[in-house]
Amino acid sequence: MPERRSRVPSTGKASYRICPRCWRAVPATSTERYCPNDGTPLVGPCPRCHAEIHSPYARFCSICGEAFEHYTEKGGMT
Ligand SMILES: [Zn+2]
Ligand SMILES: [Zn+2]
Prior knowledge:
single chain, little secondary structure, 2 strands, binds zinc ion
């Protein structure tokens, strides 16, 4: 998978948690942990490399390329 270098992660930037089922994004500062639409645990920071998600439209981790859609199972480990 090609590297994405268009944006360098910077501290202090807004980060998000994302529903891997319906792609709803909420600010990481929100107290929401589960998607109110479908009850899916929100993803963020990245479950694989723990990088914060800086785009509300992210479907893959921009650091390690992990696909967030793999985390649609409740308690989705592995
Ligand atoms: Zn959802
Ligand atoms: Zn990652």
